[in-house]
Request: fold
Amino acid sequence: MLKMHLCGDPILREVATPVETIDDDLRRVLAEMVKIMDRQKGAGLAAPQVGILKRFIVMRDPGTNELFKMINPKITARSDGKIIMEEGCLSVLGPDDMPVFADVARPSTVEIVWTDEHGAPQTAEFSGNVARIVQHEYDHLDGILFIDYLSSVKREMVMRKVKKRK
Ligand code: ZN
Reply:
């Protein structure tokens, strides 16, 4: 049974290590992460958020509903152009147990390579919502949270809501 790890938990600030073996255990964890993501109405979830310091994520394209399970993802190109979009995180919850949202600027398009759950190499170029989600989840593998991109004033506003939850 996987448990969500929330903002303030030091595991969210660690750099995850690459997956070496793709086996049934990993596929079972990926399936459970999809269940958690869907139950919490999230668009993505990264392994460190469920307490596993390994490089894999799950996410759903909100446009097509396509499900991605990415093992050892690597962003290979980012557009120069950035866009601002509202972002939230299943590990950054406010007093009502719902994600706290804030505007974040990120590259509008990214190219990414990864290994799928059957061991096959995959590559894609994403833009729009799904580019946003994949960059957010990818950051989790390097111990980065979306609040790190906010001005100190905005970050304080988010953290005040997070602290109210406790
Ligand atoms: Zn997140």
Notes: Strands lie at 44-46, 56-60, 67-78, 82-87, 102-107, 109-115, 121-127. The mean pLDDT is 96.
